[in-house]
Design the sequence.
């Protein structure tokens, strides 16, 4: 894999020398996250983590109709040993990464060696070529694929989704795919492609067809996606209502449809509907309702419910059924903003609250501080598997973020 990276860089450099009018760009960022986890229902001491992320982005366009993109992440981590193997939260996204081939993500220590407080990771996150023709735009290689207009939870985004408690959500994780986009009219598009699983294994791959159009001042998108033996049919609608924005994003999944004996009882519907509004350009607010048909209203059934395909393959991570998620961002000064977000489980009356204050130190330097507070009934007998509410079983998290772009 290292030889491949060197070869790509050499080819890009040679082409840049040969073509005087070629466009070559180098950029990236450095990010530092310091986090502390406090479990409020156990005697476990507070745990901490320091995560550094250095990313290099390269792009090369020898002509208007052809370009190459490359991105590489280098991530040293200093944290409690248990955080390398267990999420501080009860549930995470299933590790069903859509990559044809990849190197081991951990550089130090070796995968077969025990890990202490230090781990060094890396990730070839982008490696793609793009062609533009009069008929279509074609992308081949590793790139980001994401859909949906919802602000908090995207039912149609199952390829590489982020959980609501993710700190770094600036860019989606790259997946290996062949993708073709065909423009239709002024605002319409047909988007289709094949997303590769490990070693071209169809059972670990995905294929999609997505159409987008604009009518009666409304954006419509219809998605048909087959992923890991599941079929998803999605609809996304977005438009303005007065001075507000409106969205409806929904997906119905036929679970394990390509199995010899598909289990219709595991089919599920997910939907998010919401509104947002900006007051005078200084305060932005939104509210979203989410329905999770794969979840359950009974906390004691949360863990047993995780065996469903929705959680093992579908990128679903919320455990309940009905949620409300309001949020806001207020510009205190031109350089300082304050934001807050709430995710409330309407069934068990537990909540997750995330306040944050951000300071734009300079044009490309940002500093923020915030926290994730969890409220709800704590697990019985301090046993994290004995749920009495969803968010009541999660720890509190405090963090600082420092970002420099170049």
Sequence:
């Amino acid at each position: 894999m290292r030889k491949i990276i060197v070869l790509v860089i050499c080819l890009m450099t040679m082409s840049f020398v040969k073509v005087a009018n070629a466009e070559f760009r180098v950029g990236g960022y450095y990010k530092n996250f310091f986090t502390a986890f406090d479990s409020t229902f156990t005697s476990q001491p507070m745990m901490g983590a320091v995560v550094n992320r250095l990313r290099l982005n390269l792009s090369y366009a020898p002509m208007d109709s052809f370009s190459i993109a490359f991105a590489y992440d280098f991530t040293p981590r200093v944290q409690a040993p248990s955080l390398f193997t267990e999420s501080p939260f009860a549930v995470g996204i299933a590790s069903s990464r859509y990559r044809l081939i990849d190197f081991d993500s951990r550089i130090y220590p070796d995968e077969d060696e025990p890990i202490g407080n230090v781990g060094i990771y890396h990730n070839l996150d982008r490696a793609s070529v793009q062609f533009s023709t009069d008929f279509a735009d074609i992308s081949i290689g590793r790139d980001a694929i994401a859909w949906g207009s919802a602000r908090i939870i995207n039912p149609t985004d199952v390829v590489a989704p982020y959980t609501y408690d993710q700190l770094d959500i600036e860019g989606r994780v790259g997946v290996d795919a062949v993708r073709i986009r065909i423009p239709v009219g002024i605002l319409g598009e047909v988007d289709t492609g094949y997303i590769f699983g490990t070693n071209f294994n169809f059972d670990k791959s995905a294929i999609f067809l997505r159409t987008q159009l604009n009518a009666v001042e409304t954006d419509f998108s219809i998605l048909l996606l087959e992923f890991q033996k599941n079929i998803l049919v999605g609809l996304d609608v977005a438009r303005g209502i007065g001075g507000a924005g409106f969205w409806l994003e929904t997906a119905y999944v036929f679970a394990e449809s390509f199995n010899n004996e598909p289990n219709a009882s595991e089919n599920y519907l997910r939907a998010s509907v919401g509104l947002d509004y900006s007051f005078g350009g200084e305060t932005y607010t939104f509210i979203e309702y989410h329905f999770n048909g794969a979840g359950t209203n009974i906390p004691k059934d949360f863990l047993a419910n995780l065996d469903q395909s929705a959680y093992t393959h579908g990128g679903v991570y919320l455990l309940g059924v009905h949620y409300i998620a309001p949020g806001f961002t207020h510009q205190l000064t031109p350089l300082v903003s304050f934001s807050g977000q709430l995710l409330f489980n309407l069934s068990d009356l537990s909540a997750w609250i995330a306040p944050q204050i951000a300071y734009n130190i300079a044009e490309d330097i940002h500093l923020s501080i915030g926290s994730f507070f969890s409220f709800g009934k704590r697990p019985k007998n301090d046993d994290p598997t004995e749920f009495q509410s969803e968010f009541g079983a999660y720890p509190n998290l405090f963090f600082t973020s420092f970002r420099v772009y170049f």
